[in-house]
Design brief:
By secondary structure, this protein is an alpha/beta fold. Helix content is 48%, strand content 14%. Helix 13 links the parallel strand 12 and strand 13.
Length: 429
């Protein structure tokens, strides 16, 4: 009865979901690609052993990189099917993996669409990344005998409270999972409280992401072209943050300090560019011109797939999503590039990683944009202080690696479904 109610709600919003998809497709053409897959309508595909991974958007797609590499090594020749929900995630997957993986949209959570998806692709097993739980998807997997693992799982206090309010949906989903690999002990405890019976703590896959050599070289070339000019990077900023952050930095920093600004969502690039110009700041767009000259105040990062290069160039990185109650964005990439980090007060999506980075001396927290600007100004003039934070960031990133190996150990019983080879039984997580 509970899923009947859920399905009725889906039927009521189905038309709105379709209209929203068309609307988003006007700004991001990727949303109009293979739209029928959202309803479970897939073209004929050749049958072969398949492992299915769902990575909803950009962050999860990047986090999947070391896992996909490990799976390809463990079961060569097996098709990796990577499903996503967002156009930016799909574009990131194409950039990262090329033809090494097969891409498809995960259908909307309609019972017939999910059954059709599983029937078409016939995965040996599925992997959901972070906390992408859908009732009909997991019910269809259970009914068709497709085991599912939840890896790199995180569960903030806020999300746990929300899931607890719909326990009639949450508990059956968590109970159906073959295994859960949580990022931290706190995430694991919250998942167990919600009814998950099989939870292990494996760490965060994002610490294992390989840094492309080309990205290092690109960032180094930018830095050389700037001729020693100091750079503060506003990384993965969200709506409502750019104006307040730019205002604080522009009024605090000397004119010779370059502000690099990389919005989180590409559909906002033009909007953010207009905000910068409205403030009267001289600006260069990455997509249109080369490295900024000495008179440019802002360099707008309106290109895709270059985040590591921006961190390689910057003297200090200010992490977006943390200056409004949005939960913060990932600081692990910045630390892996030895870039000192400043975060705001709202980091509940990355609580443990943020607190650990601060404790390690790799990051500092500022109470608001004004305090952030003061902190940036101090670090820009403190070579020794930045050097110490850079070394701490590298050590922090190296110390927390290894999640991929631990997740692969948990997946061993599922890999038997692909290889047909028996493995030693694993102890209960």
């Amino acid at each position: 009865m509970t899923r009947i109610l859920y399905n009725l709600i889906w039927l009521l919003v189905l038309l709105l979901a379709g209209l929203r998809l068309l609307w988003r497709g006007t700004a991001e053409k990727g949303y109009r690609e293979a739209m029928k897959e959202r309803l479970g309508l897939f073209t004929n595909v050749p049958q072969q052993p398949t492992i299915w991974i769902h990575a909803v958007s950009v962050g999860e797609t990047r986090a999947a990189q070391p896992l996909i590499a490990a799976l390809q090594k463990a079961v060569p020749g097996t098709r990796i099917l990577l499903t996503q929900t967002t156009a930016t995630g799909r574009a990131t997957a194409r950039n990262l993996y090329g033809d090494e993986v097969t891409l498809a949209w995960l259908p909307w959570d309609l019972p017939w669409a999910q059954r059709a998806f599983l029937a078409r692709w016939q995965p040996a097993f599925g992997i959901l990344l972070e906390t992408e739980l859908w009732p009909n998807l997991l019910a269809a997997c259970r009914q068709t005998g497709v085991p599912v693992a939840l890896l790199n799982a995180r569960m903030s206090e806020r999300s746990a409270r929300g899931y607890a309010r719909i326990a009639w949906l949450t508990r059956p989903m968590l109970e159906s999972l073959q295994v859960i690999a949580a990022q931290t002990a706190a995430d694991a405890a919250r998942l167990r409280d919600l009814g998950a019976p099989r939870v292990a703590v494996c760490g965060n896959l994002k610490f294992d992401v390989a840094i492309p050599h080309a990205q290092r070289e690109l960032g180094a070339s930018w830095r050389a072209a700037l001729g020693g000019r100091r750079v503060v990077l506003l990384a993965s900023t969200r709506e409502g943050e750019e104006e307040v952050l730019l205002s604080a930095l522009d009024s605090t920093l000397p004119a010779e300090v370059l502000i690099a600004l990389v919005p989180r969502h590409p559909q906002r690039f033009d909007e953010v560019a207009a905000q910068v110009l409205q403030r009267g700041l001289s600006m260069v767009r990455r997509s249109q011109q080369g490295v900024p000259g000495p008179n440019a105040r802002v360099w707008l990062g309106d290109s895709m797939g270059e985040m590591f290069a921006w961190y390689a160039m910057a003297d200090v990185a200010v992490i977006g999503g943390s200056w409004l109650p949005l939960g913060g964005q990932n600081l692990i990439e910045a630390c892996a590039m030895a870039c000192p980090v400043i975060v705001g007060p709202h980091t509940f999506n990355f609580t443990q990683a943020t607190e650990d980075a601060i404790a390690a001396g790799a990051a500092v927290r500022a109470a608001d944009a004004g305090a952030m600007a003061v902190c940036v100004a101090r670090l820009i003039d403190d070579d020794a202080g930045r050097g110490a934070m850079s070394a701490a960031a590298l050590a922090f990133a190296a110390q927390h690696g290894g999640a991929t190996g631990r997740c692969m150990t948990l997946l061993r019983p599922l890999l038997v479904r692909v290889t047909g080879t028996q493995t030693a039984p694993l102890s209960a997580p």
